[in-house]
Amino acid sequence: MKASTGPGATYRLQFNRDFTFTDASAIIPYLHMLGITHVYASPFVKARSGSLHGYDIVDHNALDPELGDAASFDAYVETLHRYDMGQILDMVPNHMGVGGSDNAWWLDVLEHGEASRYASYFDIDWHPVNPALRNKVLLPFLGDHYGTILEQGELRLCYDPDSGAFSVSYYEHLFPIDPRTCPQILAPGIDTLERHTGPGHEAFNELGTLLADFKSLPRRTELSAARRRQRRQGSAECKHRLAELCRSRPGIHSLIRRNLERFNGAAGEPKSFDLLHHLLESQAYRLAYWLVASDEINYRRFFDINELAGIRMENSEVFQATHRLILQLIVTGKINGLRIDHPDGLSDPYGYYCDLQKLIDESSDSATPDDGPSCYLLVEKILASHERLPSDWPVSGTTGYESAHLLNGLFVYPGAERRLGRLYSRYTRDRVDFDQLLYESKKLIIRSALSSELTVLANLLSSIARTDRHTRDFTNQGLRYALGEVVARFPVYRTYITSRRISEEDRHYVHWAIAKAKKHTLATDVAIFDFIHDLLILERLQEYSPNIQRRIIQFALRFQQYTAPVMAKGMEDTAFYVYNRLVSLNDVGFDPRDFGISPNAFHHENRQRLADWPSAMVTTSTHDSKRGEDVRARINVLSELADEWRVHLGRWSQINRGRKRLVNDGPAPSRNDEYLLYQTLIGAWPAGSPDPSGLDAFRTRTGRYMVKAVKEAKTNTSWINPDEEYEQAVQHFVRALLDDPDRNAFLADFLPFARRIARFGMLNSLSQTLLKLTVPGVPDIYQGNELWSFNLVDPDNRRPVDYEHRRMTLQTLMTASGNDSLLPALLQDLLNRIEDGHAKLYLTWKTLNMRRQHPLVFSNGRYLELEPQGIKADHVCAFARRLENTEVLVAATRWFARLAGESDRLPLGSPIWDDTWIHGPEDAQAESYRNVLTGETVPVHRHADGTRLKASELFHCFPIALLINE
Prior knowledge:
Blueprint: E1 10-13, H1 21-34, E2 38-41, E3 45-47, E4 57-63, H2 70-82, E5 86-91, E6 95-97, H3 104-112, E7 137-142, H4 146-151, E8 156-160, E9 165-170, E10 173-176, H5 182-186, H6 190-197, H7 202-215, H8 225-248, H9 250-263, H10 274-281, E11 285-289, H11 293-296, E12 301-302, E13 305-310, H12 316-322, H13 324-331, E14 337-340, H14 349-363, E15 376-379, E16 397-398, H15 401-409, H16 417-428, H17 434-447, H18 451-465, H19 476-489, H20 504-520, H21 527-536, H22 546-578, H23 599-612, E17 617-618, H24 629-636, H25 642-656, E18 661-663, E19 666-668, H26 671-684, H27 692-713, H28 724-738, H29 745-772, E20 778-782, H30 803-816, H31 823-832, H32 838-853, H33 855-860, E21 862-866, E22 868-870, E23 876-883, E24 886-893, H34 896-900, E25 916-919, E26 928-931, E27 937-939, E28 941-943, E29 946-950, H35 951-954, E30 960-965
Parallel strand pairs: 1-2, 1-20, 2-5, 5-14, 7-11, 14-15, 15-16, 17-20
Antiparallel strand pairs: 3-4, 6-13, 8-9, 9-10, 12-13, 18-19, 21-23, 22-25, 23-24, 24-30, 25-29, 26-27, 26-30, 28-29
Helix pairs in contact: 1-2, 1-30, 7-8, 8-9, 16-25, 17-19, 17-22, 18-19, 18-22, 19-20, 20-21, 22-27, 24-26, 24-29, 25-29, 27-28, 29-32, 30-32
């Protein structure tokens, strides 16, 4: 598959132990019937046991056994191929799951330190400034301070008689013991063995020889290839001999058991743990309280997750070792493309894409130099609103966060921005400037969760500064402060500067961040910022010695790896949970400062995508979404009903005042968190009238979501410093709002408003769905979202999907829509029962199957903006796709609440649309079009200024239209 062509439509599946290859096989016929061409699979290589997402990979070259064996995987692939479908796999090149006891590479590093054959696979700083961590890796996996955990007996020295290996266990974690230190375990009590066996006994002599061989193993700091190989082979041999000795010499096994008891101490007797402590001090790691990670961790992580360690994909050996299975699956046609997870964490993303495409090209019999890239490659890249994907990347585009932002924004009424801003400020009694909030949130992340990474950068920067007499006066503290300011002011997630390439855009971003930092700095010596600027863009690199040049390049690369997680954690996981003006704008790839998207901007971006990245993914919900598309569609309606929203907020605040608790001298939840909760309830309230069990489930979901949200906000509680009293107060408030619905004054006022919002939101969501499925790019459906799916943030959006219900519903719709003359009545029924979601499923099926019938129109066809005119023109977005003689017209209604006004009548046909029309495409020859959704014929009216299609005829019985020329 070439980069210029992509799938017709994808469907995201979240594999885990509760949804296996066999489960996926069973739904393939349904997905094919729906119109899907490719499954878009979450990672299915071996992840940590029990993983519900698959991103904590422990072995890149094995299928996850919890998902099924090779036979069930092959059966799943065979089912895909039987229905002429393919699949895109989510690939995780940035990090691996560590800790635990299941990552063989990581365990080898812990056993052998820098002498491990895998030491260079992980991004570990073996020589940090802290002398206590020289030649060690910090392991922040303990639930309390090291001394406390040790003296409580939670660290247990263990012996595996099958392998002859010693290790320390701590719950699910396993910490191997350096074989060279095994004599510390085996030597105590050896005199007892001698007395029992005699000094010349074979067992005593064999053990003595083995102890000497353990001691003579090369040290972990001996790093020549020969000494590493000697250590590896010698360690394996010594452990094997120890296992054999234990099997053949019961006295030695008894000695080991006695010594284990001595090392493992007795709770309440601190001195009894000295032996184990001294043994641990001599290992290639230092066990630590998990909170230590933010200050001292010396391996690169995925964001601030200690159990996910960065791997060095720029190392060719690592690249080859992690892609063997993936390559085999591509070459054999079992996967047809890749989604690259978190590429911004890589040292050189562009280099990785090139290497990956080259690897695939060289392995493909059909590939030739003129064919272009042979693999459909999507990158999970979050672009700022002013940022473009680098045009020379050998990929097919992004996974579609920017298209989700675009599609959502079209349904936000921009005229309400000032009113909602004033309302939010008055309600929360706080005036929040998002620019300042984002800066402060990033600074918070830099000071707390990602402080150690900044320290590494500052130390590297300081070592460079000391080599030049012009910069040696820059102090370490001054450099660290300046670096933090530049990172906090950085306008994008990262740049992509290397010694071989630098774009003007990347220069601009560095210039901008430096200028902002200099303008707002409290430092007296701003020259330090100019020094950092020149290093980041590799200016005057030739003035330094080769050794310093390497350090400068390393600094520039690491800086770029750092800005991305700071932006992600600061914006997505902090600011988005603090700034609650209209939370439908707070999602991955969104920007709450962009209050609404105009049709002109919408069309411009679609034309740009068609020109630059025609096979990029177009999505509205992902596994990373803060809230699902249907939740956002409801919340967007508040921008249309700002005055009603204000009135209801005032009532709810009064009604619910007594349901708050006093925590830390203030009411809990805070007014800001309360503001978030009301929007959450509006967005996620179950369709229809939930029964008691349904309401109870929703109450539980909402409570869990709100606790996660307030932790992420880091204002009243957090993950690192939880305030359980505040969190319990939030849970209590949620329960109180949703308890006893028959005698609940809040619900009595809330439900009529919420149901009205929901109806308009579902109509907006229908329009959004049609646009997603027809604009340039490859549309993606997140699992279950072909029906209404009112999901909140992970893990809420990973709940099981009832595919059998969807299959049966689709089958019923297909049967009912067999006669075009009966379609208007069917659609009227679907709109009357809009809460069941069948209208969305019908729309999705009809549109995807039209795409399948005319694939080239949607992959290669021109994009023609169609101009609405008339009184209701602002409520219509329309365009055409044209290829040769085939023309598809798309028209979607928006802002249904403003369109309906005080009326409960659906905005269909006359008279509401009598004064509005859409200009047809230039040079259109058709006399009429067939509405694929309704079966109606829509005439073309010719006027002096061109052709027109009347909105009253387009939206006669359905508020959206999908037309094709007859």
